[in-house]
């Protein structure tokens, strides 16, 4: 299935192998940091399109930085009280604390108009104006991520049995993230993570009926009216379940790839509906959650959602 990415075979290995792989990968940048474009590790850079800059402009900036850097902070400012600057930066989504310390070392961070290069600086995120590369950071930032969950990963932030879980993909965050709903351990695909509790709650609440789409691999031949049957409703042990849409995406005679969209979220719902109709699912991938699509995102990769996507999600549930 295309959306599961080139690494899909790897995902069917046991949890032990996956853990070994993770250990081997230790020391490499987290997927999300790679996604920001840092090839060999290094700090996550805020996404920003820079206009072409002239040498004069660069010289002016350097001069400005020197002035600001050399000017001493007023007595008492930034000592003792408040939170450590790198912690505030990390919470605002600029990367891990370590990456934020590097931003400070690189003189890219300013507080109240002065470049800061000391790691001990404390700030009050409510009062101090904090900028990175000249852009103000929000004091209370919400984080919104989309993960292509590989098969074998448990849909929880922690797993007492040491199995690979969603928490492994978002370690060392300053803020607690929630996963928006669940996927079965063997189901792959799109799962959203955020620290916006109300958004997470609404996206999974039946009242808002957010549509999710899945690609299911089943064995054919299938009857012509399978879609109609699923849309009319399938009787399951915990009540009727209906699909909103159904289409055959691929058909190689015996093997079928079908897309099922529905707006409810009962456990194993797609697998149960297809199985009850006589077509057990060999493989299941979630490809869409409301307005958010999985697209070409590789298996195991985490990405920040764009502002547009977050806006669409918020509108979807009346926020
Ligand atoms: N339906 C299923 O059967 N499994 C999932 O993980 C999600 C929907």
TrEMBL record:
Q: Which CDD domains match?
A: PseudoU_synth_RsuA_like (cd02870), S4 (cd00165)
Output the Pfam families linked to this UniProt entry.
Answer: PseudoU_synth_2, S4
Q: Using the UniProt record, name the top-level EC class of this enzyme in a single word.
A: isomerase
Q: Which reaction does it catalyse?
A: a uridine in RNA = a pseudouridine in RNA
Give the EC number(s) listed in the UniProt record. Answer: 5.4.99.-
Note the Gene3D superfamilies from the entry: Pseudouridine synthase, RNA-binding S4 domain
- What are the recorded GO MF terms, alphabetically? RNA binding; rRNA pseudouridine synthase activity
What biological-process terms (Gene Ontology) are attached? Answer: enzyme-directed rRNA pseudouridine synthesis
Q: Which family does it belong to?
A: Belongs to the pseudouridine synthase RsuA family.
User: What is the official name of this protein in its record?
Assistant: Pseudouridine synthase
Q: Which species is this UniProt entry from? A: Streptomyces radicis
Give the taxonomic lineage as stored in the record. Answer: Bacteria, Bacillati, Actinomycetota, Actinomycetes, Kitasatosporales
């Amino acid at each position: 299935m295309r959306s599961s990415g080139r690494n899909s075979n790897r995902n069917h290995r046991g949890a032990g192998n996956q853990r070994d792989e993770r250990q081997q990968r230790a020391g490499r940048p987290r997927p999300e940091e790679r996604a920001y474009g840092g090839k060999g590790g290094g700090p996550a850079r805020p996404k920003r399109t820079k206009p072409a800059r002239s040498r004069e402009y660069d010289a002016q900036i350097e001069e400005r930085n020197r002035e600001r850097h050399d000017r001493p902070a007023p007595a008492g400012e930034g000592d003792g009280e408040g939170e450590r600057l790198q912690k505030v930066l990390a919470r605002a989504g600029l990367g891990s604390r370590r990456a934020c310390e590097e931003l400070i070392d690189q003189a890219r961070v300013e507080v109240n108009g002065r470049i800061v290069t000391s790691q001990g600086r404390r700030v009050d995120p409510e009062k101090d104006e904090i900028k990175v590369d000249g852009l103000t950071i929000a004091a209370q930032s919400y984080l919104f991520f989309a993960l292509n969950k590989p098969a074998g990963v448990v849909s929880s932030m922690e797993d007492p049995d040491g199995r690979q879980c969603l928490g492994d993909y978002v370690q060392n965050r300053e803020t607690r993230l929630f996963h928006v709903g669940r996927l079965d351990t063997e189901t792959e695909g799109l799962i959203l993570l955020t620290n916006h509790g109300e958004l997470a709650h609404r996206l999974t609440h039946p009242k808002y009926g957010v549509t999710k789409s899945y690609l299911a691999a089943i064995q054919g031949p299938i009857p012509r009216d399978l879609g109609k049957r699923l849309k009319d409703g399938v009787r399951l042990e915990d009540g009727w379940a209906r699909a909103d849409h159904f289409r055959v995406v691929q058909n190689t005679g015996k093997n079928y790839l079908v897309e099922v969209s529905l707006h409810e979220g009962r456990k194993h719902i797609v697998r149960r509906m297809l199985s009850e109709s006589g077509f057990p699912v060999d493989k299941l991938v979630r490809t869409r959650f409301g307005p958010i699509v999985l697209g070409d995102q590789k298996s195991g990769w985490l990405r920040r959602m764009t502002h547009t996507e977050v806006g669409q999600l918020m509108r979807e549930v009346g926020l």
